[in-house]
Amino acid sequence: MNIAHIIDEHTQDDPALICSGRTTTYGQLRDQVARFRGGLASLGVGDGDRVALLLGNNPHFVVAYLAAAGLGAVTVPLNPTSPSPELQAQLATVDPKVAVVERQSSSSFHHVDRAVMPSLAAVVTTEAVVSSGDVGFDELTGADPVETIDVEPDHVAVLMFTSGTAGAPRAAMLSHRNLLANIEQSRTAEGHIDHHDVIYGVLPTYHIFGLNVVVGLGLAVGATILLVQRFDPATAAQSIVDRGVTVMPGAPALWSSFAHFDDLDPDTFAGVRLALSGASRLPSSVARQMRERFGVEIREGYGLTEASPIVTTSTGAPVRPGSVGRVLSGVDLRLVNDNGEALVGDVGEIWVRGDNVFLGYYDDPEATAAVLTDDGWLMTGDMATADDDGYLYLVDRRKDLIIVSGFNVFPAEVEEMLVTHPLIVEAAVVGVPHPHTGEAVKAYVVATPDADIDEETVVEYSLDHLARYKCPSKVIFVAELPRNASGKVLRRGLDDALRVGLAPA
């Protein structure tokens, strides 16, 4: 078994990757991967060694990922735009044998204290001109090819940093079995990605959605992946049409940018047969606008890094508004109360079990024990309900729950209501201490340009739509909301973001 085998059987001349106008066929990709694998081996990389990838959405990432996996090494995808302190903490955790670095990350990387990486033997750079002591990426792709080795199913393939269900960022251990299982589980879903598709690959490859859905599943079925390094709706629209994109995986932020782009041609998505959304809840207003303006029916799914990532999907069945679909074949899911007892017809925490569930957090048994039961259930920390047909409806994160005078307030419900106001584009809701009610609701709001709206208007609108205890008592207008790499709003980072310069509206 090895995740690197996913490219072995596809037709030589079929296009695998398109990036910056250049096409890489499956035959070319196999050759580049085999040679880069030989290059890594010449640097001493072997079974269990960590290879850090500070790369964006480009062929370098795909080649390095599959090459390292084929040696039995452990890939560590990192955000190439991360500042040095964040990189240093992550690199200190994993202590890589080799780091593969591109231009946008080179400055931050070279400010990392090498003492935190005692095992580091080489830095591979994608730059044409390399610094003293670095190795050129192209040099390694000129090495003699090396074949993929087979590893045990539970051999770690990827360390993926995540905020995790347990709180602070940790490195989730994803095995070859985990990644391949989720690919196969996804392939069983009717209407999912197949070899005829052209996939719009804008989701970051250093995030699990981009890594194992866009890259992993895409390559496994023999599809063509259009790797997108920078996103803006105008350029994206042109690429979708010109390249014949048929599958669009994205986060709500991507779909929101299209929905609010007034100059977008109504026929932009005429060739798109499958529009997917994940990472966080899709506002119903965005789904409605995409459907009414462009005829696009966005299908939501649910997943998380620790599940490799897909748990539920809406493909192959009628869309039910607000639902993230039904559980994939081969994945067990149940909703439980605070005592771990199964619930029916009520809000409960999502527990997941299957071959796609991760091994645990790297070098952190305490955090692992906090989210994995002895019999293999992953306690996700996500709250949801399910209908009689098995369709799942996300409510919110357990840790984001706000308790006002003893009543539960789920931020997502308030956010969903706020964006129904015609002058509100986005909203994020958090709980803040209150002397009388324990907590109160505070809302951060992004308004439409030049909107005539104030705090009083928002509060009054809320009172017309929600119970009083759910309504914001404080409203802050901001120009944008802080997000992570996948586009998920960072509720807990709102105040910090404002302090460091996220401009008020």
Total number of distinct structural domains: 3
The CATH homologous superfamily of the largest domain is called: ANL, N-terminal domain
Give the overall pLDDT as a whole number. 90
The main pleated sheet reads as: 5 strands, parallel
Q: Identify the CATH architecture of the largest domain.
A: 3-Layer(aba) Sandwich
CATH domain class name of the largest domain = Alpha Beta
- Using only C-alpha atoms, the radius of gyration works out to 23 Å
Q: What percentage of residues falls in helices of 4 or more residues?
A: 25-40%
Based on Cα principal axes, name the global outline.
globular
Annotation, overall tally of beta strands:
27
What is the end-to-end distance? Answer: 52 Å
Helix-strand category: alpha/beta
SS strand fraction = 25-35%
Q: Unreliable stretches, pLDDT < 50, 5 or more residues? A: 499-505
What is the number of helical segments per DSSP (H or I, 4+ residues)? 14
- How are the strands ordered across the major sheet? 4-3-5-6-7
List the helices and strands and how they pair.
Layout: E1 15-19, E2 22-25, H1 26-42, E3 50-54, H2 59-70, E4 74-77, H3 84-94, E5 98-101, H4 103-110, E6 122-125, E7 135-136, H5 137-140, E8 156-162, E9 170-175, H6 176-187, E10 198-201, H7 208-221, E11 224-227, H8 233-242, E12 247-250, H9 252-259, E13 274-277, H10 284-294, E14 298-300, E15 302-303, E16 310-313, E17 326-327, E18 332-336, E19 348-353, E20 360-361, H11 365-371, E21 378-386, E22 392-397, E23 402-404, E24 407-409, H12 411-418, E25 424-434, E26 438-447, H13 455-465, E27 474-477, H14 494-499
Helix pairs in contact: 1-2, 3-4, 6-7, 9-10
